[in-house]
Amino acid sequence: MLRSVCLALFLAATPTLLPAGAAPTVPLRSRDQVAVQVIFTYGDAATKTLANGSSIRFDSERSGAFDAMLDRYRAYAGVDSFKLDRPGQGSISVGDTMTFLGGGQAVVRREEGSGVPGECAVTVHIDAQRGVYSIAFDLETKTTVTLTGPGMAPQYTPNATGVAYESGDLPLPAGDDVIRGHAVFHPPIGGGHLGTNIVPEGRLLKQQEGGTPNPVHLRWQIGRPGPKPPLELILAMEDHARWLPEGPTPASPRGAPGNTATLTATLRRKDGGPLERGAVNIRFDLARSSTEPGVCLNFPVDAAPDPKDFDLRFVAGGDAKPLGPDAQAAETPVGDWRQASVVLGAFDWGAYGNVTAIAYVPDYGDVLATVAGSGARSLPMPQRAAGSNIGDAWKEQYGVTDRADLDDTEKSPGNANDGDGFTLYEEYRGLIARGQHSRRDADARLDPKRKNLVLLLAQRGRTAVSGAGGAAQSFNLQPVGGNLPAALAGGRLLAGAIGDAHVVPVWQDEAPASRRMNANSAYGHHKPQHGVLLYALNSGVAGDVGVAAPLERRNKTPLTCDFVAVDFAAIASGYAAQAAANAAGGIRTPYTLADELANTVAHELAHACGVPHHGDRESSSPTRQLDRTHVPPRYKVIGSDGTEVTAREHTVTNPDGTVTKKDYFELKGQIAGDDSRSSGDLTCLMCYPNYYTWRLTAIRGQGYVWRAMLPLPMGTTLCTARDGSPPNPHFGPAAAGRGNCRAKVKIRDEAN
To answer: Looking at residues 686-712, what average pLDDT do you find?
Structure first.
């Protein structure tokens, strides 16, 4: 049993409202038995993030309705006392969870139960001489505590819990044939009023994090006229199973919800007979409502946590009107209510909470609603599984009903670096991408079955210096601007090459300066995850048309890549020159400008995710000018048509139009040997298909062979071995430890 302790509380007791002309009933103090009714609701949640990135999450929801007859007994001289000596009726529901998340794995302790009241205690004292009364109760139901975690079988422990409360002395109302009262009850931590298991720990956790634990809401009625046909209040919502919360977007009117839901509470007799009269009023309460920072992962940017910024609030439009600045309750005006509606607004894309309803009916007392079709005491908004704050409809849409809210285990073929840094709940909650929420834009959707890489599209230029000392380089960075189609195409190309991945395009200004894409996270959070910032490069660096800075940093993740820049203009200019030269020589260019632009973007983004070149060795050619002394077999030149080039002279057209004859053969363009950037699988987008003009092979004891290269198709895959199939016939296998690029991709900032 739970312990009860007297507390000073804010309480209110009011006499019952009797129908016109009703005869007074026998005072409570003159009876040998009195009826008692108790209703309670409670809900709370808190999250604590530890220094190592692990987190502890507390969630609780409880409610109950209890009816019983109390028998007279002697407790104090001159005081009419009654206690519970027989079983009561009603139901109590308990659902408490404590989740510890660390290293991408969760240990969960959950206590749950729903059923008739078990070993309960209720006492009432009425002191007519002093004009006071008191009520104390300890209400329980049987529960089961379940402990689950990685590598362990679930452990089950039977338990019992509910709520315990003692009012202290309250004013005895005039006409004490019926006494009604209510309290907003703040159980002291450690007092045992909500058990000694998960809830005390959770309330302490919330208090340590600077929050105020939520109170228990209590209502009671002592005494009731003769037997009445049982009533029920049915809480329902049309198409409840499909409703998902939608928060505001940048274009939403200030203060308006993203979407709404209309709930109804219908009063009726359980036996189907006609009601004598309706409820005086019907009240709706949000027993628990989330308070996630902002409205989604990145909007507003760097939103500050606010424990009073509730994600679900009652709004105008229904029969019940919102109450108070927090709008966590709504109530109808006094009337004869057989059915009442209330409108619930969503102010976050991941909003979650639970709605309860209570009707006050004269001669009956309070009637606590049950949910249509389930018998539960509160309606989860949205509909979701126990222990989850993700709408079932979203999980069903993506086929992830078996995954936990904190799951981050997306896989891609040939890659053991699981996850993308976003938990399932964060992917559900989503982000703003190019002005739209990711649920509304297929290009930006955070897909729970694919690894999601956020690509930040630069909107402002700047000068950046990367590297240190003599290796430092300055970059003139520009907005992506009109190069957006090429940037998007490059993102799609990389996603396809990774397999089961998605590149999510987001404007730079839709992310904080830190590039952290899940900064607005509390519940369902694992660790920070960053986006990759893409610029247009105003001028190439050391002959390169793309860079993933800093160049010297290997094994990057989105966090450790400062930026990616692509010289779109230089690529276009170079492509035009190359295509013209190819055409003049009767050679077909095996790729388009769009192919080259997309390949370069995908290539640099892959660098940002830890993928290196197939090799970095640049050839040191023994000579670039072969004169009459450089003859076979020591010096051998093979043309692009496969025939040997024996001539050693060439002509040069001077700027003034004159022609000068040279007495040597000149090797123009880049020259590569073994372990170059063109080695390895030719279909891999990390292989350079058109960078080198000559392939140099050194044959020990014989000499050198230069072989002219034709332009090759752009790569569209990420390779899975040191060489391709068929092997690279021109530049050979990738360098030792290189290649197998698909296995090297790391999208999640935290290493597995």
So the answer is: 90
Q: 164 with 311, same domain?
A: no
Q: Give CA 303 to chain center in angstroms.
A: 15
- Same domain as 481, residue 337: no
For residues 346 and 337, the answer to whether their CB atoms sit within 8 Å is no
Contact 1, 119 (CB under 8 A): yes
Asked whether residue 218 falls in the same domain as residue 239, the answer is no
68 in a domain, yes or no? yes
Mean pLDDT of 101-120: 86
Whether the predicted pLDDT of 136 surpasses 60: yes
Does residue 261 form part of some domain? yes
Beta-carbon contacts of residue 387 (< 8 Å; ≥ 6 apart): 59, 97, 108, 110, 404, 405
Write the DSSP string, 471-517: G-EEEEEE--GGGHHHHHHHHHHHHHHHSSEEEEEEEGGGS-TT-BT
Q: Quick one: 331 and 374 in the same domain?
A: yes
- Concatenated DSSP letters of 300-320: STTPPP-TT--SEEEESSSSS
DSSP at 200? H
pLDDT digits (tens, 9 = 90+) for 435-449: 999 999 999 999 999
Q: How many Å is the Cα radius of gyration of the chain? A: 36
Flag whether 458 is in a domain. yes
Checking if the pLDDT of 8 tops 70, the result is no
Query: In Å, what is the CA distance from 451 to each residue of 27, 328, 420, 446, 528?
Result: 70, 37, 5, 8, 15
Clarify whether residues 162 and 118 are in a common domain. Answer: yes
Torsion from C-alpha of 406, 412, 417, 419, nearest 10 degrees: -20
Segments forming the whole domain that contains residue 289: 228-395
Last residue of a domain, one of 608, 633, 654: 608
Q: What is the DSSP string of 638-688?
A: E-TTS-B-----EEEE-TTS-EEEESSEE--S-EE-TT-TT-S-TTBTTS-
CA distance 358 to 287: 12
Share above pLDDT 70 across residues of the chain, in percent, rounded to a whole number: 95
Count Cα neighbours of 649 within 13 Å in the Cβ-side half-sphere. Answer: 5
Nearest CA to 451 out of 249, 99, 247, 718 is that of 718
Question: Which position has the higher pLDDT, 512 or 197?
Answer: 512
Short-list 68, 188, 73, CA closest to 125: 73
* Residue keyed to tokens 């820049």: 565
- For 559-617, the three-class secondary structure string (H helix, E strand, C coil) is CCCCEEEECHHHHHHHHHHHHHHHHHCCCCCCCCHHHHHHHHHHHHHHHHCCCCCCCCC
Name residues whose C-beta falls within 8 Å of residue 58's C-beta, 6 or more positions apart in sequence.
44, 45, 46, 47, 97, 98, 198, 201, 202, 203, 205, 206
Q: How far apart are CA 429 and CA 342, in angstroms?
A: 25
Domain limit, last residue, from 557, 589, 608: 608
CATH number at residue 344: 2.60.40
Strand, helix or coil at 206?
A: helix
| pLDDT at 302 exceeding the cut of 90 | no
Q: Kindly state whether residues 595 and 704 are assigned to the same domain.
A: no
- Residues in CB range of 324: below 8 A, 6 or more apart: none
Tell me what the mean pLDDT of segment 30-38 comes to.
91
Same domain? For 511 and 414 the reply is yes
Terminal-to-terminal C-alpha distance of the chain = 46
Average pLDDT of the residues in 9-26 = 43
669 located within any domain: yes
φ/ψ (deg, to 5) at 578 = -65, -45
Per-residue pLDDT band for 557 (boundaries 50, 70, 90) equals very high
57 and 97 in contact (C-beta within 8 Å)? Answer: yes
In sign, the C-alpha dihedral spanning 574, 575, 581, 582 is positive
Residue 465: predicted pLDDT: 87
Whole-angstrom CA distances from 234 to 228, 357, 370 are 18, 9, 5
**pLDDT digit string, tens, across residues 334-382:** 999 999 999 999 999 999 999 999 999 988 889 999 999 988 899 999 9
